[in-house]
Amino acid sequence: MRKSARGSWKMDDIRKLCDAVRETAFAVHTYFRHGHLEKVYENALAHRLRVAGMQVTQQQPLSVFDKDGTNVGQYFADIVIEEFLIVEIKAVGSLCAEHQAQLLGYLRSARVEHGLLINFGSRKFQIRKYVLSAVDAGPTILDPL
């Protein structure tokens, strides 16, 4: 993926990255189907993305800070791609508000704008893209991806 001269991601690059992750996740879902634990899908997706040449980190710790800068805890993001895109993996019957809140918390904590919420646990493949335009702003949900 290319970065602009300022080091930020171009919108075209963001779309291409998300499309590649979506296509790879769909292939994982098609092959494994539903019924496995979340970790199986996480490992399979991370493996296939690495084979495709992407920089992938699993279980990336994300620190959470209080208003005065005190570290009050850590999250562990399932997958971080290219140090830019947070992917939260689920293996549940259906996505719910708590899953969305979890991903948005990760985005705010990491000060990352883009995230994908992927559910492998349903017969129907589910993926949602979230864009957090500012640290304190509400998310924009782009569906379908």
Walkthrough of the structure:
The chain has 145 residues and is α+β, with helices and mostly antiparallel strands. It has 3 helices and 6 strands, in the order H-H-E-E-E-H-E-E-E. The protein has helices spanning 11-32, 38-51, 97-110; strands at 56-65, 71-81, 85-90, 114-119, 126-132, 139-142. It has a 6-stranded mixed beta sheet, with helices on both faces. Helix 1 (11-32) crosses helix 2 (38-51). Residues 1-7 and 137-145 have low confidence and may be disordered.
Question: What is the compact description of this entry?
Answer:
The protein is an alpha+beta fold and 145 residues long. 34% of the residues lie in helices and 30% in strands. A hairpin with a 6-residue loop joins β5 and β6.
Keywords, separated by commas or semicolons:
145 residues; single chain; disordered C terminus; disordered N terminus; 6-stranded mixed β-sheet; 30% strand; alpha+beta; 34% helix
The averaged pLDDT comes out at 87
Rg over alpha carbons: 15 Å
Distance from first to last alpha carbon: 19 Å
Helix content: 25-40%
What's the number of helices?
A: 3
List the helices and strands and how they pair.
Layout: H1 11-32, H2 38-51, E1 56-65, E2 71-81, E3 85-90, H3 97-110, E4 114-119, E5 126-132, E6 139-142
Parallel strand pairs: 3-4
Antiparallel strand pairs: 1-2, 2-3, 4-5, 5-6
